[in-house]
Amino acid sequence: MLGMVDGNGHPYSWSAMFNGYDPDEMRRCPYPGIPAYLDKEPKETLRIRGANVTHIWTDDPEDAVRVARASLIPNVVDRPEDVIGRVDAVVIATDKGNEHVERCRPFVEAGLPVFVDKPLADNERDLLAFADWVAQGKPILSSSCMRYSKEFMPYRLSTSNLGELRFATITTPKSWERYGIHALEGIYPIFGPGFVSVRNTGTNERNVVHLKHACGADIVAAAHADLYGAFGLLQLCGTAGHAFVPFQDTFYSFKSQLQAFVDYLRTGERPFPFAETVELMKLVIAGIRSREEGGREVRLSEIAPSLLDGHATKEVTA
């Protein structure tokens, strides 16, 4: 378990889902929501079986000691590279996409499988680097936990009762760069590949992002810095019905996300095509570009166009 940045306590919670945890030490975690949802989970269903977090490194060495105590991690290392040769896989537990290539590089080059917290990348250069690694057969997986939301699952399976989808909204707190992917990956398995364009008419603190999909639907994703009271509110509007679904069970989504990585390690079969991650990162990047260019509509074909062929993006006339 490698890396820890401001505003992100994944090393605490994710490690606990593998190892279990010390309740007294976990209550000292600076993110009170983590012990709150861990404590609700029965001990017999808390852990992912057959895998353990054995080593930890964090950007601030004192954080590593605290996480190790709380999440029962036996080894604290001085450098992230120190885990090479001692572990079967690594988790990059940070959510700043512009850092991920360099955080991942030593482990990718060493042949270790890597799970990267969302978003994988927030710029074209880094997206191309990851795509090149995957094309070489490097085992890299990245996702938002929202892909695994149990509340959204019925609509991932079918929206036929709603008729043809015409409009959707989804919300998230924090920045578009770090949390926009939560909104995007929450809706992506419902609509599937085929996003056409992105227009962000908001600001750094108040991102309001209009997405067009090849099916004819318009989607609005809002990422507001302080929208903590409305994380993961999904609205689906169709020609025959509608649905409003709030995201609620954080633990279930995180555990399912990590279980998917463990299953990938065991079977070599991806839980979803890497092409979907490519398209999602293009949406993140297009949202940044649109905002920086005064709300211009940015087509996905503009973003890393060399990745078009053989990937999920389906270009149509808007």
Can you describe this structure?
It holds the Pfam family GFO_IDH_MocA. Residues 49-128 form the Gfo/Idh/MocA-like oxidoreductase N-terminal domain. With 318 residues, this protein is α/β, with parallel strands linked by helices. The protein has two domains: 10-117, Rossmann fold; 149-248 and 279-307, Dihydrodipicolinate Reductase, domain 2, CATH 3.30.360.10. It has helices at residues 10-19, 23-26, 33-40, 43-46, 61-71, 100-109, 124-135, 153-157, 176-191, 250-267, 274-292; strands at residues 55-56, 75-76, 90-92, 114-117, 140-143, 165-173, 195-200, 206-213, 218-224, 233-238, 242-246, 298-299. The strands form three sheets. The protein has a seven-stranded mixed β-sheet with strand order 11-10-6-9-8-7-12, with helices on one face. Residues 309-318 have low confidence and may be disordered.
Report a brief summary of the structure.
The chain is an alpha/beta fold and 318 residues long. It has eleven helices and twelve strands.
H/E element sequence: HHHHEHEEHEHEHEHEEEEEHHE
Q: What integer is the average pLDDT?
A: 95
What is the CATH level 1 assignment of the largest domain?
Alpha Beta
Strand content: 15-25%
User: Strand order across the biggest sheet?
Assistant: 11-10-6-9-8-7-12
Q: Within the CATH hierarchy, at the fold level, what is the topology of the largest domain?
A: Dihydrodipicolinate Reductase, domain 2
State the helicity in percent bands. 25-40%
Assign the CATH architecture of the largest domain: 2-Layer Sandwich
How many extended strands? 12
Low-confidence stretches at least 5 residues in length (pLDDT < 50)?
309-318
The CATH H-level homologous superfamily of the largest domain: Dihydrodipicolinate Reductase, domain 2
Compute the separation of the termini in Å. 43 Å
Largest sheet: 7 strands, mixed
Determine the oligomeric state from the structure: single chain
Rg on CA atoms, Å: 19 Å
Number of domains: 2
Instruction: Quickly give the structural class.
Output: alpha/beta
Protein name: Oxidoreductase
GO molecular function: nucleotide binding
Domain Gfo/Idh/MocA-like oxidoreductase N-terminal: 49-128
InterPro entries: Gfo/Idh/MocA-like_OxRdtase_N, NAD(P)-bd_dom_sf
